[in-house]
TrEMBL record:
InterPro entries: ADH_Fe/GldA, ADH_Fe_C, Alcohol_dehydrogenase_Fe. Transmembrane segments: none annotated. Keywords: Oxidoreductase. GO terms for molecular function: alcohol dehydrogenase (NAD+) activity; metal ion binding. Residues 27-164 form the Alcohol dehydrogenase iron-type/glycerol dehydrogenase GldA domain. SUPFAM superfamilies: Dehydroquinate synthase-like. Pfam families: ADH_Fe_C, Fe-ADH. This is 4-hydroxybutyrate dehydrogenase. Belongs to the iron-containing alcohol dehydrogenase family. It comes from Anaeromicropila populeti. Residues 176-370 form the Fe-containing alcohol dehydrogenase-like C-terminal domain.
């Protein structure tokens, strides 16, 4: 029985120039990136085909976005896919390493045979998704008005490349939403029934690095994050390794309808849901794996184990203020729709819950957050 694996080869560089020279980026390469990242690479990628993600719409990546890019590049030969960006860029680019991925809705419905055909190199520019080391692509499926994940071995990168220089221009808001996402990856993977000693080692290290960094920022201000960006990038990758093996759960499942319906950034949507899910877990079964997690969190947060979700929210609010759901425009009718979507469309994630959550419990969590 599979316990643990890290499929991509992980490579680190201090600067983008070193990466471009080592990987000899040029003719035959299809590059996905944002225009803001291009300045780091422009002198070194002249012969590559460059796709700017922003030219195909803003917000979360979607099936429509993938189809538009596909129409533009379907007649262009390429041998490698190189994605440089946040989770939305990486998740879109993964599909272009497959032999066939259009129509996208058929791919997610497993009606298309999955075959990886191109080399895939992923370079994160945020410190949150961990997508560079996972086999998951998450898209908003416009035709179904929800977000779904495709998790298959064929989506693993050949190389995950870590370059701290790329995080230097990351705004405080994007730093906050991405790093909180990584924190939740590490916590959900720790309490997943698929977790084991290997995944938990990576989960706990990521938790410790992120929360310690947050304490430093809360004490000394936003600029205190700058010397810590390399640590946050590494923590994000650790968290990606953990949840890539053990999975995420209800927090992510319940955040997806919010993100899809109201275009809330993924990390922010996760934070809106996070602590109430874990308070519910705590009430339902305080003596399982969550007890060990709470003791670990309490030591970092310097509080009683019974107060960790209050204290963690106090700390996180200094990084990214939490909003009630109604402030995003969510209606009471939405809560019922969101619950139905979670229970019917997000079973892949809900199977990883610390303890089973009924439809009534999920609706109750949404109501408490409203």
């Amino acid at each position: 029985m599979k316990q643990f694996s890290v499929v991509p080869t992980i490579v680190q560089f201090e600067e983008c120039k070193q990466f471009c020279e080592e990987f000899q980026i040029g003719k035959g390469d299809l590059l996905f990136m944002s225009k803001s990242s291009y300045s780091f690479f422009e002198p070194y990628v002249k012969e590559a085909v460059v796709i700017f993600r922003g030219n195909y719409g803003s917000g979360e990546p979607s099936d429509e976005m993938v189809e538009k890019i596909y129409q533009d590049i379907k007649d262009i030969p390429y041998e490698r896919v190189i994605a440089i960006g946040g989770g939305s860029v990486l998740d879109v680019a993964k599909l272009f390493a497959l032999k066939q991925f259009s129509p996208v809705i058929d791919l997610f419905d497993r009606k298309i045979e999955l075959q990886k055909e191109k080399k895939l190199i992923l370079v994160p520019t945020t410190c949150g998704t961990g997508s560079e080391v996972t086999n998951i692509s998450i898209l908003e499926l416009k035709v179904r008005n929800t977000k779904m994940g495709l998790a298959v071995e064929e989506l693993f990168a050949d190389y995950a490349v870590l370059i701290p220089e790329l995080l230097n221009d990351l705004s405080m808001h994007f730093f906050a939403t991405s790093s909180i996402d990584a924190l939740i990856h590490s916590i959900e993977s720790y309490t997943s029934p698929k977790a084991n000693e290997f995944t938990q080692m990576f989960s706990l290290k990521a938790i410790q690095m992120i929360l310690s960094g947050y304490k430093e920022i809360a004490k000394n201000g936003e600029e205190a994050r700058k010397p810590l960006l390399g640590d946050f990038l590494m923590a994000s990758t650790y968290a990606g390794i953990a949840f890539g093996n053990a999975g995420c759960a209800a927090v992510h499942a319940m955040s997806y309808p919010l993100g899809a319906a109201y275009h809330v950034a993924h990390g922010e949507a996760n934070y809106a849901i996070f602590t109430q899910v874990y308070k519910t877990y705590q009430e339902m079964n305080p003596n399982g794996r969550i007890k060990v997690l709470n003791e670990f969190l309490a030591e970092i947060l310097e509080c009683d184990a019974n107060e960790v979700y209050v204290e963690i929210e106090t700390l996180l609010n200094q990084i990214l203020p939490k909003k009630p759901l109604h402030e995003y425009g969510v209606t009471e009718e939405d809560l019922i729709t969101f619950t139905e979507t979670v229970m019917t469309k997000q079973t892949r994630l809900m199977n990883n819950n610390y303890i089973e959550l009924s439809e009534e419990k999920v609706l109750g969590i949404y109501k408490a957050l409203y």
